[in-house]
Amino acid sequence: MDALKLRRTPLRTAFTKAVNHLQEIIENDPVDKNAVETAFEMLDAKSVKLKKIDEDILELMIETNCTQEAYNIEFEAIEGYTEKMIAWQVRVKNIMKTDALGQKDNHSLVTSSSSSLRLPKIQFQQFSGELTDWLRDSTTSSRIHEDESIDDGDKFQYLIQATTQNPGPGI
Hints:
The chain is mostly helical. It is built from 5 helices and 2 strands. α2 packs antiparallel against α3 (68-97).
């Protein structure tokens, strides 16, 4: 069991360093989603290795008839790492699905078959209900409506965002 714990120590250290690195990346403004995904995959790889050794240690503890107290202490320490990993899975998932509506990032990545470049997000001006504003608003709405890469739910959120809560008289 000592040999397994010896192997586990540097893995726990690497796991903690990976968490800290991921935290640093997320604190950058704007958040580089590729860097987040890469750092998370590295954390996940360390977590898988750590989980395997932890399972082996718990199994060996049972086989050697350790005390319930010793088993519980080991189990709770292992659960702490598992909980951290789950929390990071959820956090990274939420960061990765943040889109133009997330408003954390002031740029959206536009990719075509010929190039990738960062463009500013479209800033909606809410439709006031005035006929003179209709053309500008309908053009923006049409571009979003016709874009097949945008989820229908997101399109609906754009529509809500682009309209005022209380349009003027006559509407």
